Amino acid sequence: MQLKKIKTDRPRLADEVYQQILTAIRAGDIKDEDRLVQERLAADLQISRTPIREALLRLEQDGILDSSPRGGFIIHRISDQEVKELYQARAAIEGQAARILAVENNKDKLASLRATIEREENISSPTIEAYFEANRSIHRTFIVQCENRYLLEMFDNIWNRGVGYYLFAAIEKLDLSKSLGDHMSLVDSIASADPTVAMDSVVAHITDGFDLQLEALAKRQ
Amino acid sequence: MQLKKIKTDRPRLADEVYQQILTAIRAGDIKDEDRLVQERLAADLQISRTPIREALLRLEQDGILDSSPRGGFIIHRISDQEVKELYQARAAIEGQAARILAVENNKDKLASLRATIEREENISSPTIEAYFEANRSIHRTFIVQCENRYLLEMFDNIWNRGVGYYLFAAIEKLDLSKSLGDHMSLVDSIASADPTVAMDSVVAHITDGFDLQLEALAKRQ
DNA sequence: AAAATGGATACTGAATACAGTATACAAAAA
DNA sequence: TTTTTGTATACTGTATTCAGTATCCATTTT
Asked: In B, which residues are within 8 Å of A91 by CB distance?
C-alpha cells in the first residue's frame, strides 16, 4: 500500500483573507469608495487583526489596493496612463508566450488551447464578470502552456490589478462572436511556427481593445 | 517663498528590514545555509518581531527567500529550469522595452542610455558584485527610459531573484571589454527605429549569457 | 463667510503574549 | 546497531495591547 505524503505546509489565515478580498473585489462587492479597515474586517471575520493586515499589505504590494489618507485601504484608482502601461506589459508577457509556443509548436498544447477557447466561450450567463473571467482563463492558458512560472506570475499580477475594473474585458456588447474568432486565430498564428507572426498576432489582439477600454473606464467615472 | 509639501507617508520598519536583508544577500553576507529567524533578527536589530516578519514574508512572496522546514527563511535554491525561465522572462520584459524605445526613437533617451553605459562600465574594483550591479544598472536604464512602471517592477523582481547568485552576471573573467561592445550595440539597434531589430538584438544579448550562467551555478554547488 | 485652532476619534505600526506545531535529539526497545 | 518513542526546544502564526499619528469636526477668530 502506497501512502501519500501529507502536505504539512500550514495554511495561513492571511492567504485566505487575501483570496476573499480579491474575490469580493471581482464580484463587485467592494466599491471604489469602500475603505477596508483592519479592525473592522477583523471583527467581521472574527479573527485578529494581524492576518488581515498581512493580507492587506500584500494586496497593496500587488498594486490592487492603496492605503487611504482617511485610514484603511481602497481599490487602487487606475489612470489612463496606467492602463496604457498595463497593455504594454501584457503585450510583453503574452507576446513572449506566443513566441515560445510558436517555436515549440506542440500539437497537443495547441489542441488544448483550442479546447479551452471553445469551453470558455460557452458562457451561460453573459455578465461582464463572466466575460472577464472567460477572457482571463483563455489568455492564461496560453501562458500556462508555455510552462514558465515567472511569466505566469507576472500575468496573474497584471490581471489581478484590473480585477476591480474588469480591465481587458471592455466590449461594446456582451457578444462573444467577435471574441471567438480572435482567440482561435491566435492559436492559428502560433501553429504557423513563426515566432514573430505569433507574437505580432497576439500583440495586435491585445492592443485592439485598448481604446475601447479607455472609453469603458471613462463611462465608469 | 514656495514651501515644499512635506511627505507624510510614514516609513515602515518592515520596508527598511526588507532592504537591509536584500543588501546583505547581495553583499554575500547571507550564505545559502543561513536561516533567517524572526526572533533572532529582532534581537539583532533591537526591534520587535512584527516588522521582521512582514519583511520576510514579502521576501518570500518575491521569490527571494523560502521558509525552511527547520524554521526561519533561507535563500531560495534556484534550479537550472528556473534560470532558463528567468532568462525567458527577461527577454519578454527587456525585449518589449527595446521595442517601445525603438518606436519612440527619442534622441535624448538614447544619449542618456549611452552615458549610463559608459559610466557604469567604469568599474573601479572588478568584483562579481560590482559587475552584477553595473550590469543591472545598465539594463535597468533601458526599462526606466521606456517609462512603464509595470515593466520596471517586473524587471526589478526578476533581478532581485538572482541577487543571491549574481544571476545574469556570469562571465569568464571580470573583463568588461566584451560587455562594453554589447551594450552599446543594443542602443544602436534601438536607434535603427525598427522594433523587431531592437528586440532581437536585446533578446540575443540576454540569451548569450545563459549557458555561461548554468556553468557558473554548477561550479557554485 | 472663511480661515484657523483644538480636541476627540479612528486607525495604524509596532511590541508583547500566548498557544500550537515541527524538528532535533536523547533514551528505550527491538 | 537500527528503529522507535518521547520530550524539550525552537519557532511560528495569531491575538492582544500600547503608543503615536492623521483626519474630522466643532468652535473660535478674523
From this structure: 96
